[in-house]
Specification:
With 133 residues, the chain is of the alpha+beta class. 18% of the residues lie in helices and 23% in strands. The strands form three sheets. A two-stranded antiparallel sheet has the order 1-6. Strands 2-5 form a two-stranded antiparallel ribbon.
Length: 133
């Protein structure tokens, strides 16, 4: 049994491409984009068919979704000799413990300025707009 392999150096001919289009249920001309940027093949007139047009963008909306447990942490920002203390509390999933840590740190070091931080781990998802498939 002999195998014939296509010659990739010359590429497919017009008849091969037409046969390919018709086998896929398309009656027309197959336009291939090769290079030259996004709009390279859009405005080229083709006598045997219609010029290629860009597809309309699919309406989509982006949503932010919380993907984990909210984290709370406190930081001492009291300045000592021109520099911040920088002490940080443990990370908790509730803010109740922050006040306890702040009061304990203030009592121990006599510091008075703190910042509470809250973090929500989130992801951004793209979904089709309402009424789109």
């Amino acid at each position: 049994m002999t195998h014939s392999y296509p010659d990739f150096n010359t590429g497919p001919g017009r008849e091969d491409l037409t046969r390919l289009m018709r086998s896929c249920g398309q009656d027309g001309v197959l336009f291939l984009r090769t290079s030259g940027g996004i709009d390279a093949a859009l405005g080229i007139p083709h006598p045997e068919g219609k010029p290629m047009t860009a597809s309309a963008p699919v309406p989509a909306r982006r949503e932010v979704q919380i993907t984990g447990i909210r984290k709370h942490v406190a930081e001492c920002v009291t300045e000592i000799n021109g520099a911040r203390c920088g002490a940080r509390s443990s990370v908790w999933d509730t803010a109740v413990h922050l006040n306890v840590w702040i009061l304990a740190h203030a009592d121990e070091y006599e510091h008075e300025k703190f910042v509470k931080h809250m973090e929500d781990p989130v992801n951004v998802y793209t979904k089709p707009a309402e009424g789109q498939p």
